[in-house]
């Protein structure tokens, strides 16, 4: 091979290696956190006499200029700088000269990236919490309008017992409330600053980690520098929290797809969130809920990817953890847009009250009420009551009626044990009475649903 060919190959290999090794093209997402951390670090160094006041002021002014250049699009990101830290520091030094070279005193890129990334995760945790609060408020608003609207409650996708639609909406409000609490718990657990940990063992410089931690809004500095530079639990937590949240998004999306089908027609989605078929003009497809359901898979993948990266890493920092960010960035963007869109879908959907209530007359939803009546009022063993109820259901089927529509004579004729049953049984079989009879704490009765809404409203007023 000629010398010229060798040189071309070396140059090509060097370019490939630069692309493989660099993170600048994705970790530039952290520019604001990197600059914020650097300003806090410079202020602390000045307090400790490591930088002069003039040097610190020049550094801070220069860093803010770099931030402006990035946000205006003037700053050019290049593989010549391996990561966002070196890109910012290099430009800072161009602007302020010698003081810029002093900024990295008493820190390493190991604690710098851990700090930047943790700041990003903490900020996004707070913003996702805010979105969850808004979504929960929307579910409560819908629930408030439908505390008496009947809907068939299902298990195994089979009609089971009558509920009110407000109660059904509150089930999702509870799911997203748990999501909110998970993010809240993660924020508190991870609100500790790695800055000043240096490479892994701390630094001989006379720094004050408590000062820089306070400036960045952390509760305190992290307690072990070796753990601090290698810990990515905070990233795994936000990925897990997002995955669980998106699972809940997917579940309500599945119900929306089902409810908006021709067979159900329980809800009608705004035209903004459904599209017509390209060849069948009569069809309106629930594309948005389907996409929400589908995007759950990608956030699961991001969680599993980072768990796999971290599972065999020795202490302390390893280059493998460069793979920690893209999945988090992707999952954060996915959940943010998903929560925003789901909130609008729920706000704008039209509830078909008549269709829901008609569907409650399919499947004999009050059969359990008959069995409960026989146990409570006739002192029957439940198993006996169960088989008598089956006879009444069979009678209703033969008459092409729902059990709630049977007359007293029809009920009495279904089984000899019922020949003297009191007229009170017809009240027990009434769909709305059945729903309201579930008045135990947390149940579906209108009274309990209203109480649950009040509890949610009180909770919403108290949370940040």
TrEMBL record:
Its EC number is 4.3.2.1. Residues 12-301 form the Fumarate lyase N-terminal domain. The keyword tRNA processing does not apply. It holds the Pfam family Lyase_1. It is found in: Cytoplasm. Pathway: Amino-acid biosynthesis; L-arginine biosynthesis; L-arginine from L-ornithine and carbamoyl phosphate: step 3/3. GO terms for biological process: L-arginine biosynthetic process via ornithine. This is Argininosuccinate lyase. It comes from Halarcobacter anaerophilus. The lineage of its organism: Bacteria, Pseudomonadati, Campylobacterota, Epsilonproteobacteria, Campylobacterales.
